Inverse folding.
């Protein structure tokens, strides 16, 4: 199946922020955070990246569209916050649960790499939660290398 990236419209942006926030909250809950803490972290993260709750320079958000023009996910990509203008980052990539396993994630990542490269990127980084073994396998298969590992042990 073929997918394309379609820049998100300003009118769709508030809905996307809420969806991305909700997905991040879910990931943080799976990591063991409380709902209140997870929501706070997600909202603060979005506010840093999109202070006016609108699109901001250095960040591109795309709908991932299937061949019939239906959004099956999204990609948020942009320049890394380092001083290296050639360093780019995948801030968030999401494929709807009912659309996974069809190659949409792989194609989305390849399209993201192509977009970043065409805008001067020399590297593309990302973070992935340790429990997300499916995504980790995809990134490994695309040639992403582990550059750091963050570990946690609960002392209850």
């Amino acid at each position: 199946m073929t997918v394309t990236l379609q820049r998100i419209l300003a009118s769709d942006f508030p809905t996307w922020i809420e969806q991305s926030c909700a997905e991040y909250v879910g990931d943080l809950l799976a990591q063991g955070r409380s709902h209140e803490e997870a929501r706070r972290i997600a909202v603060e993260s979005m506010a840093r990246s999109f202070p006016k709750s609108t699109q901001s320079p250095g960040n591109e958000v795309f709908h991932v569209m299937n061949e019939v023009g239906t959004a099956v996910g999204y990609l948020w990509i942009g320049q890394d916050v380092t001083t290296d203008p050639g360093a780019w980052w995948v801030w968030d990539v999401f494929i709807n649960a009912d659309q996974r396993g069809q190659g949409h994630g792989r194609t989305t990542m390849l399209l993201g790499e192509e977009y970043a490269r065409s805008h001067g990127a020399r590297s593309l980084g990302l973070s992935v939660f340790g429990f997300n073994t499916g995504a980790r396998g995809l990134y490994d298969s695309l040639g992403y290398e582990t550059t750091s590992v963050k570990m946690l042990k609960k002392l209850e």
In short: The CA atoms of residues 50 and 56 lie 6 Å apart.
